[in-house]
Amino acid sequence: MSNSDRLMALIAVGILLSAGYFLLDDPSDQPWTPDEEKTLESLWIGNLSQPPIDSSNAVATNINAAKLGHKLFFDPRLSVNGLVSCAICHQPSRHFSDGMAKGFAIGEAQRNTPSIVGTAYSPWFYWDGRKDSLWAQALAPLEHEDEHGGNRMAYIHFISGDEVYRPMYQELFGDLPDISDPVRFPANAAPGDNPEWNKAWQAMAAADQESITRAFTNLGKSIAAYEMLLVPQPSRFDHYVETELINDASTQESLFSPNEKMGLRLFIGKAGCINCHNGPLLTNNEFHNTGLVNSAGEIPDKGRVEGERLVRADPFNCAGRYSDSAVNDCAELRFMRSGVDLIGAMRTPSLRNLEGTAPYMHKGQMKQLSEVLDHYNRAPEAMIGHNEAEPLGLNDLELRQLEDFLNTLNGPVLTPIL
Amino acid sequence: MTLAFYFRDRGLLLLWLPVYFTLSHAALGQPVGAGDIAFQSTVAGHYEVRFDSQPKPIVINQIQSWVMSVRTGDGLCVKGAEITVVGGMPEHNHGFPTAPLVRPGANDCEYLVEGLRFHMSGRWEMSFNIKAGAKTDTLMVSLDL
């Protein structure tokens, strides 16, 4: 046997031993490396700090504002028919989502109702980020014809005439406008699509429009103060990470099945989910086109490219006159970018509490997590724009393991006592 | 006998090429970590740049500003420079999630890089174009987050 043949034989034996190692050894038994442990810790809810300060809302952390917002959130009288509260679509029992493909109140919404748990951490709101604060977002459904269907003038009449709300409001924001003159302040008025209400609004003096709009924005700021308090609580995954951080191997083993551990390995490794689903809320709150098919019969959704245009023009944005920020505080808005890659891009959702927030994606296109995972595994061509994702090449077992891991991220929601 | 020669004869060299190029690429790159971007030199050597990031170390998913101090090789402040920055993640084929800008800072040496945000962990490549008078130079920064 020549030297080269001996070398070849040695290499062949090495390859066979390596193959045997990978086939026989169960990777779910492998301990986490220091780098992997660091990655796990980055997803741990223990690293979730207080929500960022919303400088556009002076009462964002005011407990009395949260109390007022809490009442407003659950009050169906804040609607044109007296039947629709925020909680119709953001149901506490469903992690503040509604279980439907698209939200339904007075009419059907254009998109899926996202959970609002933990959204105080996002710089952008709605799937396309067309609002840049919780309070600006909270105002929009109140006047949308398919949601609460009301108008700001009617809401201020309601608050002014209510013995509970009026003092709560005035303690926070000072006197409500004097709206006793029905000529200056009709029963219904608002800028927008309703021709009758819009006509009444246009007939109002600019100063009166201003005082009503300012009072209306204060309602949004109070609702936002309540929503700021809705944060997810630890899941089984978080307990798992804690056992890793304190080297408690025996408890750790009892917390995750081998498949769940393998799913976690895939999540932070080969599957690359962590690229966008990062941090303790498992979202980067950024916008990505992932090639989702739209609802049947609808034109493709433009996503962030439209949201960017809308938030820039929004009178309730951070730089607007109703914001409590100095313009220089509005960094997200000032340095917001546009670009063709934002066509069809949607905001990355949190992966916490997926059990209670189906169906998934911006149109509620997918009922099961397995459908979502299959979609990302295939990474099909986008209907509009370009799909950023690449096919993952995962086999059926790996997809099931990923799904098993995602189901370890369920946990309760902290609902504050106010 | 070299490894390349050995495997070339048996038609197996192609199997090793991806490994070879991966190792070569890693050896050539000189990324800095999230807490270690303090001192950098421009490509042509016209300027020396110091960064002070806020927050420190650099974190993902948080809009941030850096102070950038620009001096010549002999330590003089580079005043009135026009600086632009572009960047992104070549591995994922995308740019910054924001549109950062650079403007004059607190003194003649300093500039403020505003509106930076990194929304993924991994390798970020940043290119600062620095134009002061007749001299234009580029600072390349590789950042591993």
3D structure, described in words:
The complex is a heterodimer of chains A (about 425) and B (about 140). Chain A is an all-alpha fold and about 425 residues long. Chain A has 2 domains: about 160 residues, Cytochrome Bc1 Complex, Chain D, domain 2, CATH 1.10.760; about 160 residues, Cytochrome c-like domain (Cytochrome Bc1 Complex, Chain D, domain 2). Helices cover about 40% and strands about 0% of the residues of chain A. Chain A has a two-stranded antiparallel ribbon. In chain A, helix 3 packs across helix 9. About 0% of the residues of chain A have low confidence. With about 140 residues, chain B is α+β, with helices and mostly antiparallel strands. Chain B has a 5-stranded mixed beta sheet with strand order 1-10-9-5-6, with no helix packed on it. In chain B, about 25% of the residues are buried. At the A-B interface, helix 1 and helix 14 of A face strand 6 of B.
Order of helices and strands of chain A: HHHHHHHHHEHHHEHHEHHE
- The number of helices of chain A is 16
The appropriate CATH architecture of the largest domain in chain A is Orthogonal Bundle
The percent range for helix content of chain B is 10-25%
CATH class of the largest domain in chain B: Mainly Beta
Structural class determined from secondary elements of chain A: mainly alpha
Number of self-contained structural domains of chain A:
2
Please count the beta strands of chain B (DSSP E, at least 2 residues each).
10
Tell me the β content of chain B: 35-45%
Number of helices of chain B: 2
Strand order of the largest sheet of chain A: 1-4
**Mean of pLDDT of chain B:** 79
Mean residue pLDDT of chain A: 94
Oligomer type? heterodimer
Low-confidence stretches of chain B: 1-29
What would the principal axes of the Cα set say about the shape of chain A? elongated
The largest contact between protein chains, plus residue counts on each side, is: A-B, 25 and 25 residues
Low-confidence stretches of chain A: 20-24
Distance between the termini of chain B: 41 Å
Largest β-sheet summary of chain B: 5 strands, mixed
